[in-house]
C-alpha cells in the first residue's frame, strides 16, 4: 500500500483499451505513457520511488488520475468520446433512475457530502 502517489516522469506512448468500475461495461482506447516513474510513501512514511512499464504503468496512471478527479473518459480522444457517447448516456440514465428510486443520494446530498470531505481534509 502506498500513500500520496505522484507521477514524476513519463516516457513513451501506448494506446490500449481501458475500462473503469465507475463506468461498468464501457471500454475505449486511451493514450497513456508507456512507462512512468512514481513516488509515494509506504506505511512507515518512507519515500518510495518505482519505475513502472506497460500495464502496471497504465494502472497507476489510471488510479492516480482518480485521486486528481480525472476519469478515464476525460482521457479519451475525440473519436473515442463520440463512440462512447451512447454508453455514457445509458449509464447516466441508469444513475438518474437509481436516484429517483432513492438508491443513490440526490445531487445536492452528494455535493454536501463531498464538501464535508474536502473540509475535513484541509
What does this structure look like?
The mean pLDDT is 93. The protein has 122 residues and is an alpha+beta fold. It has helices at residues 54-67, 78-100, 107-120, and strands at residues 3-11, 14-19, 27-32, 35-41, 47-53. The chain has three helices and five strands, in the order βββββααα. The protein has a single domain, classed as Peptide Deformylase, CATH 3.90.45. The strands form two sheets. Strands 1-4-5 form a three-stranded antiparallel β-sheet. It has a two-stranded antiparallel ribbon with strand order 2-3. 42% of the residues lie in helices and 29% in strands. It starts with a strand and ends with a helix.
- Proportion of residues in β-strands: 25-35%
- Tell me the CATH superfamily: Peptide deformylase
Q: Kindly report the average pLDDT value.
A: 93
The CATH architecture name reads Alpha-Beta Complex
Question: Which tags fit this structure?
Answer:
122 residues, 3-stranded antiparallel sheet, Peptide Deformylase, 29% strand, 3 helices, 5 strands, alpha+beta, flat
Which SSEs are present, and which pair or pack?
Elements: E1 3-11, E2 14-19, E3 27-32, E4 35-41, E5 47-53, H1 54-67, H2 78-100, H3 107-120
Antiparallel strand pairs: 1-4, 2-3, 4-5
Short description:
With 122 residues, the protein is of the alpha+beta class.
